[in-house]
Amino acid sequence: MFKESSKAPKPRYELLDGLRGVAAIMVIFYHVGECFATSVRDQWINHGYLAVDFFFVLSGFVIGYAYDDRWKRGLTSGGFLLRRLIRLQPMVIIGVTLGVISFLIQGCEQWDGSSVSTGAVLLSLLLGLLMLPALPGTAPEVRGNGEMFPLNGPSWSLFFEYIGSIFYALFLHRLSTRMLRVFTALSGIGLAAIAIGNGSGDYHLGVGWTAEGGGFWLGLVRMTFSFSMGLLLSRDFKPIKIRGAFWLCSVLIITVLAVPYIGGAERPMIANGIYDAICTLVVFPAIVYLGASGQTTDRHSALTCEFLGAISYPVYIIHYPFMYLMYAWAWKNGYGFDQVWYVASAIVITVIILAWLLLKYYDEPVRRYLSGKLIKKRNN
Prior knowledge:
- The protein has helices at 14-34, 51-67, 77-105, 118-129, 155-170, 177-196, 215-236, 245-258, 270-293, 299-333, 337-379.
- It is mainly α.
- The protein is globular, with a radius of gyration of 20 Å.
């Protein structure tokens, strides 16, 4: 089920780490397909956007498991949020730095070819470093397509991850399990309403990356349900006997995210919204539960989970600047996948290698330093 860690106050669920890595790699494939799609309905790995909902469920489960019993032993909201900041922010800084480099390489132009001033780029960089979204149509929204974090698009989910952590520190951890069930059920109704009620305009849950059209509130509902569901699972968790949990859950994640748009690519279909709702409300919580119940049975699976878990967050937060460059190059020249498959393959491999190098030689050392300086000092 988990393995002992000499540095962690509790054992880790190593299978969940591995599943996070599987989902992160699927996100890369999803974004590769974005380069060649004409709409959200004909994109490859079509439901890759649902990986974010899986991440939120996983985050709620792990945070609840790690911290729920520590509040009575003196953990403060400030102390918890400091730990989350140390865990997440170093790689956020790398992601937005790579993002500004890629934007400069592209020539400081929006997607329509309009020039962007140096001041606007610097302002966008500052907001990205501070995890503050750029509003649509304002100067720091430098790419001109509505992204809240235009230098590194996936930062939007980290923005909501921070909001979820604040919710947990100030509110959710105080709820009784009964009240948490009520809160989770109500937020689940809201999420189902977004998916089935066509909150996105295409009957899908790929919302939250832009503030346009109420995107912030739609993204907030996505995070609120999935995070609180993960927290609820951690409180009610009683492992079941299951063999091959990692491989079973990996196949489920890959299959769920790779399913084509339900109903075909011609027009939006409510069936796709129903599919997204079922995946988020039922399938992902079930996968997290099964993953937490399983255990590695051999060295190969243990090493696989360890590696995938280690690179999962770095891969997710650094890959998109490389995608921006590929998009600009392929779109400018009118290339199809058959002409750039080797570049896409090289990007995937490069991102995985770079993620591992950054983890070992930047992220982990920085987090150790900050933990030693800030957390130990705070506890003294």
